[in-house]
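Office hours follow-up: a student asked to see two folded examples consecutively, so here they are.
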Amino acid sequence: MVHLKRTVTLVMALVMLASLSAGIVPAAKAQEGTTINILMESVSDTEYIQQLIPEFTEQTGIEVNIEVLTYTAIHERLLPQFIADQGAYDVVVVDKQWVGEFVGADWLLPLEDYIAASSFDTSVYIPAMFEMLGTVNGTTYLLPFYNYTMGLVYRTDIFADPDLQAEYEAEFGVPLEVPTTVADYVQVAKFLTRDTDGDGEVDFYGVTQQLARGVGIHAEWANLLFSLGGWYYDEDWNATVNSPEGVEALTAMIDLYENAAPEGATGYNFDEQAEVMRQGNAAMMLTYSWMPAQLDDPDQSQVAGLTALAVAPGGSGAQGGWGWAIPRSAPNPDAAWEFINWVESFDTAKARAILGGAPTRYDVFQDPEVLELYPYYDVIEEMIATAKPVPLFGGAAQMVDILARELSESVAGGKDPQAALDDAASEMNDLVVGDPLIG
């Protein structure tokens, strides 16, 4: 299991990188003495990159400063840097819902010439990830960095419990199994919600949700929307979130909250959501691809060794990820590309995966050493291949904010689901007017 090998992964990663570079001296360190500045999010994958940076400096002579901010602070910090003649950052990480905004405003440097000069093979990326964090209208602006695609985490011991299996089959006439449709997901979650100590209070939940207003509640709903065959816009960019599928997804999310989830879930973001699972008080949750490693760590989880991962019910979860990009205002774009070329090489991407990172390359997902440490990575590869992203246009981040507000008003405030999504659709139609990425 992951937690039994965690103490050796850093050593393995560094030894692997050192052995690969031993005796290899670049013909010329063209950027030696240059210092590049990188803006990154405060997540585990950033920590893994920081651990590996000394190898890059040894190979290239380029010093690296990484500034780490929370998700909400990054966007605010970037905007004045993008419009400056020369900004502070040489490399930035870009969330999937910012791609349309940044490309549409012409803030990112096209990478085509760098990719060609370095013979970098972009076909190593899972197509669904590269379509979201790579090429826009035929031009490549980013390389994918890490995924946070969503799937279903479930308790293996709960689903294997013979008493629960017998009770479920007696009630519904079918075996208790990991749900593969939204209807089954709701039914199973409500069935598993119960009072386990007999005091009249529910203390075990079928699901734990993240329903605080923000990206989390949007992601909870989007997983259900995709599973029901819904989407944000039609082919003419008319909003469709208020379709029967959209309303059914929201109704199901409310049903889960009222009958299968903790009452406090309307204040939960992903960490509070996961804490319910870590404490052993929930059977399932829709969550991000990097969460299983935390749940399998006995230092922070009471369910280590008792969880597994599956594709979201319905077969399409919410796609998530970040990409590397070079701003047009970067002071040192050539050195910036040297860093991206290194950090997205197979060797470095594998070393980061060994540390516990969330890769985006086929060859890393399928590497035997990586799979030995993280056998569920084959499920994550399938999750990425089948997941769906937000639409690619300049207002994507605003769209998520609009939906988060209306979803929250419905779940926590009692607003009628149809009315909430009608209001969201009206504002979403205004967002796409005049967008440069929409033909």
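And the second, which I mentioned at the end of office hours:
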Amino acid sequence: MRSPIAEAGDARDEGRAHPRIDTAVSGPVLFARYAYGPNRLGLCGPDEAGALLTGAARPDGSAAERDRLLRDLARRFEGAWPYLELIAHANAIADPLDRRVVEAYWLGNALQRSVGARALGGSLDERFRRRLRADAWRWLAETPAAGAWPVHAYHVLDVFPKLGLLRGGPAPGILETIDACRIRWGTVVAADGDWLAVDAPGIELVDGKLALGPARPTRVRSALDGAGFVAGARPGDVISIHWDWACDRLSPDAARALEASTRRELAIANRSI
């Protein structure tokens, strides 16, 4: 059965380079919106959650000053930054925090197609080969040729498991961790102060393979003391979610791109479990 997102348009729309609604948002701000969720939980990046939130939700001073601060913080996200550099270099874009590049990493867009298997493979070799057992590395090294893209879903679904999350089978809580770490999409059902009730599909284990399940009710935080990234979200809006935090409103094109990149990387991950 096709999802509501897929019914709104074919997955080929994943190739559009500008799927978002608010094209006025700068790349550094967009990066901070998606990075804030795990950062506030102490999971990645510098210990600067307050600065990320303020810079992306309540910008003070000039836009240039805000972006300079957020750029400095973004470079300290050791997991995401090399992917941004890879995408930018492959597309002859000087700035790894160009909005198009940031969008490509978190959601997926046409820029991914310029990153060849050799380039992605070289990056993986440099970053992860020494951290993996030989059998895990051999499989991970084959994923670029299998069609992997340097999108966040790839890191969560294909790289993380080989670093220990799913080896030997899904341990208790592992599926929940992977599901929370990936960028999810959900439809707003109701707003309640700094929280949103959302219907969002989750990852399930079906016949020993990872799969997207049906939409299920979940509660996500949309703001902290009134500061957030989806102010005025209403029932019917489709939003992106990272861990328990609402990151952005998604246009139909953006939602389809995110779903397509997620399904693409799920298929690759399932080859090894």
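Two things to take away from it. DSSP finds eleven helices and seven strands in the chain. The radius of gyration is 18 Å.
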